[in-house]
From TrEMBL:
Keyword RNA-binding among record annotations: no
Domain Flagellar basal-body/hook protein C-terminal: 216-257
Location in or out of the cell: Bacterial flagellum basal body
Any matching Pfam family: LlgE_F_G_D1
Protein name, UniProt field: Flagellar basal-body rod protein FlgG
Stated family: Belongs to the flagella basal body rod proteins family.
GO biological process, alphabetically ordered: bacterial-type flagellum-dependent swarming motility
Originating organism: Methyloraptor flagellatus
The gene coding this protein: flgG
Length: 261
Protein backbone atom coordinates (compact mmCIF):
# COMPACT_ATOMS: atom_id res chain seq x y z
CA UNK A 1 0.00 0.00 0.00
CA UNK A 2 1.54 3.30 -1.18
CA UNK A 3 0.09 5.24 1.75
CA UNK A 4 2.66 3.58 4.03
CA UNK A 5 5.59 4.92 2.02
CA UNK A 6 3.99 8.32 1.45
CA UNK A 7 3.36 8.79 5.18
CA UNK A 8 6.86 7.49 5.99
CA UNK A 9 8.38 10.17 3.75
CA UNK A 10 6.28 12.75 5.60
CA UNK A 11 7.53 11.50 8.98
CA UNK A 12 11.17 11.64 7.83
CA UNK A 13 10.67 15.16 6.48
CA UNK A 14 9.16 16.38 9.76
CA UNK A 15 11.92 14.66 11.72
CA UNK A 16 14.46 16.76 9.81
CA UNK A 17 12.26 19.82 10.35
CA UNK A 18 12.41 19.24 14.11
CA UNK A 19 16.19 18.79 13.96
CA UNK A 20 16.68 22.10 12.17
CA UNK A 21 14.31 23.89 14.55
CA UNK A 22 16.05 22.39 17.58
CA UNK A 23 19.40 23.61 16.25
CA UNK A 24 17.96 27.11 15.91
CA UNK A 25 16.69 27.02 19.49
CA UNK A 26 19.97 25.59 20.78
CA UNK A 27 21.85 28.53 19.24
CA UNK A 28 19.57 31.29 20.50
CA UNK A 29 22.47 32.69 22.55
CA UNK A 30 25.18 32.10 19.94
CA UNK A 31 26.76 35.37 18.81
CA UNK A 32 26.07 36.13 15.15
CA UNK A 33 24.18 32.87 14.58
CA UNK A 34 21.89 32.79 11.54
CA UNK A 35 18.87 30.52 11.70
CA UNK A 36 17.79 27.98 9.08
CA UNK A 37 14.46 26.83 7.75
CA UNK A 38 13.42 23.71 5.85
CA UNK A 39 11.97 23.86 2.34
CA UNK A 40 10.00 20.84 1.09
CA UNK A 41 8.99 19.61 -2.36
CA UNK A 42 6.47 17.00 -3.43
CA UNK A 43 7.81 13.86 -5.11
CA UNK A 44 6.96 12.39 -8.53
CA UNK A 45 3.37 11.60 -9.42
CA UNK A 46 1.94 8.47 -10.94
CA UNK A 47 -0.59 9.12 -13.69
CA UNK A 48 -3.59 6.81 -13.51
CA UNK A 49 -5.32 8.87 -16.21
CA UNK A 50 -3.09 11.55 -17.72
CA UNK A 51 -4.63 14.99 -17.81
CA UNK A 52 -5.19 16.21 -21.37
CA UNK A 53 -5.17 12.71 -22.84
CA UNK A 54 -7.94 11.40 -25.06
CA UNK A 55 -10.77 9.93 -22.97
CA UNK A 56 -12.62 8.05 -25.73
CA UNK A 57 -12.69 7.25 -29.41
CA UNK A 58 -14.88 10.29 -29.94
CA UNK A 59 -11.91 12.52 -29.12
CA UNK A 60 -12.99 13.79 -25.72
CA UNK A 61 -10.06 15.12 -23.67
CA UNK A 62 -9.73 14.55 -19.93
CA UNK A 63 -10.12 17.91 -18.15
CA UNK A 64 -8.34 16.85 -14.96
CA UNK A 65 -7.07 13.27 -15.01
CA UNK A 66 -5.99 11.13 -12.05
CA UNK A 67 -2.62 11.62 -10.38
CA UNK A 68 -1.32 10.06 -7.17
CA UNK A 69 1.65 11.59 -5.41
CA UNK A 70 4.47 9.60 -3.82
CA UNK A 71 5.31 11.77 -0.83
CA UNK A 72 7.60 14.63 0.14
CA UNK A 73 11.30 15.33 0.18
CA UNK A 74 13.55 17.99 1.70
CA UNK A 75 14.61 20.44 -1.01
CA UNK A 76 16.91 22.71 1.00
CA UNK A 77 17.69 24.14 4.41
CA UNK A 78 18.45 27.78 3.52
CA UNK A 79 20.05 30.03 6.11
CA UNK A 80 18.27 33.29 6.93
CA UNK A 81 20.95 35.98 7.01
CA UNK A 82 18.89 38.81 8.50
CA UNK A 83 20.30 41.23 11.06
CA UNK A 84 20.32 40.14 14.70
CA UNK A 85 19.76 42.42 17.67
CA UNK A 86 22.79 44.46 18.78
CA UNK A 87 23.69 44.58 22.46
CA UNK A 88 26.32 46.48 24.44
CA UNK A 89 29.16 44.51 26.07
CA UNK A 90 31.60 47.23 27.24
CA UNK A 91 34.48 45.07 25.95
CA UNK A 92 36.79 47.03 23.67
CA UNK A 93 37.65 44.10 21.36
CA UNK A 94 33.98 43.28 20.71
CA UNK A 95 32.72 44.53 17.33
CA UNK A 96 29.33 44.23 15.66
CA UNK A 97 28.38 44.80 12.03
CA UNK A 98 25.32 46.95 11.54
CA UNK A 99 24.16 46.22 8.02
CA UNK A 100 25.72 44.14 5.24
CA UNK A 101 29.08 42.43 5.44
CA UNK A 102 31.05 39.75 7.25
CA UNK A 103 34.42 39.74 8.99
CA UNK A 104 37.25 37.93 7.20
CA UNK A 105 39.08 35.27 9.22
CA UNK A 106 42.32 33.52 8.22
CA UNK A 107 42.23 29.79 8.98
CA UNK A 108 45.39 27.77 9.84
CA UNK A 109 45.25 25.98 6.46
CA UNK A 110 45.39 29.29 4.60
CA UNK A 111 41.73 29.48 3.64
CA UNK A 112 39.65 32.56 4.38
CA UNK A 113 36.49 32.11 6.43
CA UNK A 114 33.74 34.62 7.11
CA UNK A 115 31.72 35.39 10.22
CA UNK A 116 29.28 37.81 11.83
CA UNK A 117 30.71 36.98 15.26
CA UNK A 118 32.83 39.94 16.34
CA UNK A 119 33.73 38.67 19.82
CA UNK A 120 37.45 39.08 19.22
CA UNK A 121 40.39 38.72 21.62
CA UNK A 122 44.07 39.69 21.71
CA UNK A 123 46.54 36.79 21.72
CA UNK A 124 49.94 36.75 23.42
CA UNK A 125 51.42 38.66 20.45
CA UNK A 126 48.79 41.39 20.62
CA UNK A 127 47.09 40.15 17.44
CA UNK A 128 43.32 40.48 17.05
CA UNK A 129 41.93 36.92 16.85
CA UNK A 130 38.73 34.92 17.26
CA UNK A 131 37.93 32.88 20.36
CA UNK A 132 39.64 29.92 18.64
CA UNK A 133 42.80 31.93 17.95
CA UNK A 134 42.21 32.50 14.23
CA UNK A 135 43.56 35.81 12.98
CA UNK A 136 41.36 38.59 11.63
CA UNK A 137 42.24 39.30 7.99
CA UNK A 138 43.93 41.69 7.33
CA UNK A 139 45.99 41.14 10.48
CA UNK A 140 45.87 43.75 13.23
CA UNK A 141 48.52 43.76 15.97
CA UNK A 142 48.23 45.99 19.02
CA UNK A 143 51.59 47.18 20.46
CA UNK A 144 52.37 46.11 24.03
CA UNK A 145 52.56 49.71 25.26
CA UNK A 146 49.32 50.76 23.56
CA UNK A 147 46.30 52.29 25.27
CA UNK A 148 42.87 53.59 24.25
CA UNK A 149 42.14 50.85 21.70
CA UNK A 150 39.38 52.11 19.38
CA UNK A 151 37.61 50.92 16.25
CA UNK A 152 35.52 53.50 14.44
CA UNK A 153 32.45 52.94 12.28
CA UNK A 154 34.61 52.72 9.13
CA UNK A 155 36.79 49.97 10.63
CA UNK A 156 39.87 52.09 11.31
CA UNK A 157 41.75 50.70 14.33
CA UNK A 158 43.66 53.22 16.44
CA UNK A 159 45.64 53.18 19.69
CA UNK A 160 47.61 55.65 21.77
CA UNK A 161 51.23 54.47 22.00
CA UNK A 162 53.43 55.34 24.97
CA UNK A 163 53.23 58.99 25.97
CA UNK A 164 51.80 60.15 22.67
CA UNK A 165 48.85 62.51 22.79
CA UNK A 166 47.46 61.67 19.37
CA UNK A 167 46.18 58.22 18.31
CA UNK A 168 48.08 56.03 15.86
CA UNK A 169 46.34 53.98 13.17
CA UNK A 170 47.45 50.34 13.34
CA UNK A 171 45.04 48.66 10.95
CA UNK A 172 41.86 48.56 8.93
CA UNK A 173 39.07 46.00 9.40
CA UNK A 174 37.42 45.03 6.13
CA UNK A 175 34.09 43.40 5.34
CA UNK A 176 33.11 40.91 2.66
CA UNK A 177 29.78 40.61 0.86
CA UNK A 178 28.37 37.80 -1.28
CA UNK A 179 25.81 37.75 -4.06
CA UNK A 180 24.12 34.75 -2.42
CA UNK A 181 24.76 34.75 1.33
CA UNK A 182 22.59 31.66 1.78
CA UNK A 183 25.03 29.78 -0.48
CA UNK A 184 27.83 29.98 2.10
CA UNK A 185 28.95 26.72 3.72
CA UNK A 186 28.73 26.66 7.52
CA UNK A 187 31.70 24.83 9.08
CA UNK A 188 30.94 25.45 12.75
CA UNK A 189 32.60 27.83 15.21
CA UNK A 190 30.43 30.62 13.73
CA UNK A 191 32.42 30.43 10.48
CA UNK A 192 31.37 30.19 6.83
CA UNK A 193 33.27 29.33 3.67
CA UNK A 194 32.83 30.59 0.12
CA UNK A 195 31.22 28.15 -2.32
CA UNK A 196 30.33 28.12 -5.98
CA UNK A 197 26.75 29.04 -5.01
CA UNK A 198 27.71 32.02 -2.84
CA UNK A 199 29.85 33.66 -5.49
CA UNK A 200 33.21 35.29 -4.89
CA UNK A 201 33.58 37.67 -1.92
CA UNK A 202 33.36 41.38 -2.60
CA UNK A 203 35.68 43.09 -0.10
CA UNK A 204 35.51 46.74 0.97
CA UNK A 205 35.79 48.94 4.03
CA UNK A 206 32.86 49.35 6.42
CA UNK A 207 30.69 52.28 5.49
CA UNK A 208 31.40 52.00 1.76
CA UNK A 209 28.35 51.92 -0.50
CA UNK A 210 26.35 48.77 0.19
CA UNK A 211 28.34 47.83 3.28
CA UNK A 212 27.42 48.13 6.94
CA UNK A 213 29.28 50.03 9.63
CA UNK A 214 31.02 48.77 12.76
CA UNK A 215 30.02 49.32 16.37
CA UNK A 216 32.73 48.79 18.97
CA UNK A 217 31.84 47.27 22.36
CA UNK A 218 28.74 45.66 20.88
CA UNK A 219 27.84 42.20 19.60
CA UNK A 220 25.16 40.88 17.26
CA UNK A 221 22.82 38.33 18.81
CA UNK A 222 21.35 35.36 16.95
CA UNK A 223 18.42 36.20 14.67
CA UNK A 224 16.32 33.44 16.28
CA UNK A 225 12.81 34.34 17.44
CA UNK A 226 11.88 31.98 20.27
CA UNK A 227 8.11 32.33 19.73
CA UNK A 228 8.39 31.55 16.02
CA UNK A 229 10.64 28.55 16.65
CA UNK A 230 8.32 27.07 19.29
CA UNK A 231 5.35 27.53 16.93
CA UNK A 232 7.27 25.80 14.13
CA UNK A 233 8.23 23.00 16.51
CA UNK A 234 4.61 22.39 17.50
CA UNK A 235 3.48 22.43 13.86
CA UNK A 236 6.20 19.93 12.92
CA UNK A 237 5.23 17.68 15.80
CA UNK A 238 1.57 17.70 14.77
CA UNK A 239 2.45 16.96 11.16
CA UNK A 240 4.59 14.04 12.32
CA UNK A 241 1.72 12.69 14.42
CA UNK A 242 -0.73 12.96 11.51
CA UNK A 243 1.61 11.02 9.22
CA UNK A 244 2.02 8.33 11.89
CA UNK A 245 -1.79 8.04 12.07
CA UNK A 246 -1.89 7.53 8.31
CA UNK A 247 0.53 4.62 8.73
CA UNK A 248 -1.66 3.11 11.44
CA UNK A 249 -4.76 3.54 9.27
CA UNK A 250 -3.04 1.92 6.28
CA UNK A 251 -1.89 -0.94 8.50
CA UNK A 252 -5.43 -1.51 9.75
CA UNK A 253 -6.77 -1.49 6.18
CA UNK A 254 -4.17 -4.06 5.14
CA UNK A 255 -4.94 -6.15 8.19
CA UNK A 256 -8.65 -6.14 7.30
CA UNK A 257 -7.82 -7.23 3.76
CA UNK A 258 -5.60 -10.17 4.64
CA UNK A 259 -7.32 -11.35 7.84
CA UNK A 260 -9.52 -14.44 7.48
CA UNK A 261 -13.23 -13.89 7.79
Amino acid sequence: MKALYIAASGMMAQELNVEVTSNNIANMRTTGFKKQRVDFQDLLYQDMRRVGSQASDSGNVLPTGVQVGSGVRTAATPRIMSQGTLSSTEKETDVAVKGEGMFRILLPDGRTAYTRDGSFELNNSGQLVTADGYSVDPAITVPANAANFTINAQGVVQVTVGNATTPTTIGQIQLARFVNKSGLEAIGNNLFLETGSSGAPQVANPGDEGYGTLLQKQLEAANVNSVTEISDLIAAQRAYEMNSRVIRAADEMMSSTVSPK
